[in-house]
């Protein structure tokens, strides 16, 4: 009982200084692995040193800090849950002990027994947004954390600048507003919205997936997620460009069919449009096959 009280007191002291407790191998084995424990520990295994070049680790760490701060400064804060972090350069022996070869990884260590499969957060499928981590923690510990994010005025400032820019443009062109009725301009704006939505930008905003995935064993970078249940940010950019290229091909085909210009020029436009549609649609279909295994079912 004295040992348990000492461990809890020490963790509470560290938590009062910093919401996320940094741990090396010795601290991890004493406070996380070794009994007795009557508290849960969330551990983020990561590699934040610049030489590791893990941009995903930095992004995930920002969300993890938001979540830990939300817990630390909430009215429900108690000594039943602690947030810790183990950096590879400070605890390589811990990574070896757990046979861990990728980062970032989130694990829950329960008060009793060993972690089960569900105690490892499915980052590739769910993403690392603080809200998703909070939901996972609630499932594992029954501790509900309401995420509070620091105020971010960048969106408000950007909106104000956009409104000012549009208002200024309308004022300068107040005597000639025919451009408002330009069908091509509105069509381009609508296409931009369609491309953004169909490429999965909203999913990225909600789930917060990594930009890409770098295999720590061979250093190979993957821009396309291998599962149909998730995607990378880079993947949505690729899909956006492919859809734009296919649409351009369709526009050229339509132009070649409906215009009344030179026949030779129309034939060239038709071939270019057909080439764009065939090539980029084939590329898009190959990505679809790689994610939806067994296609065409």
TrEMBL record:
Membrane topology of this protein: Multi-pass membrane protein
Pathway of action: Protein modification; protein glycosylation
Main subcellular localisation: endoplasmic reticulum
Lineage top rank: taxon: Eukaryota
Subcellular location: Endoplasmic reticulum membrane
InterPro entries per record: OligosaccharylTrfase_OST3/OST6 (IPR021149), Thioredoxin-like_sf (IPR036249)
One Gene Ontology biological process: protein N-linked glycosylation via asparagine
Chain segments annotated as transmembrane: 153-172, 184-203, 238-256, 268-288
SUPFAM superfamilies reported for this sequence: Thioredoxin-like (SSF52833)
One term under GO cellular component: oligosaccharyltransferase complex
Listed Pfam families: OST3_OST6
Keyword vocabulary terms for this entry: Disulfide bond, Endoplasmic reticulum, Magnesium, Membrane, Signal, Transmembrane, Transmembrane helix, Transport
Family under the similarity heading: Belongs to the OST3/OST6 family.
Name this protein carries in UniProt: TUSC3 protein
Organism: Sinosuthora webbiana
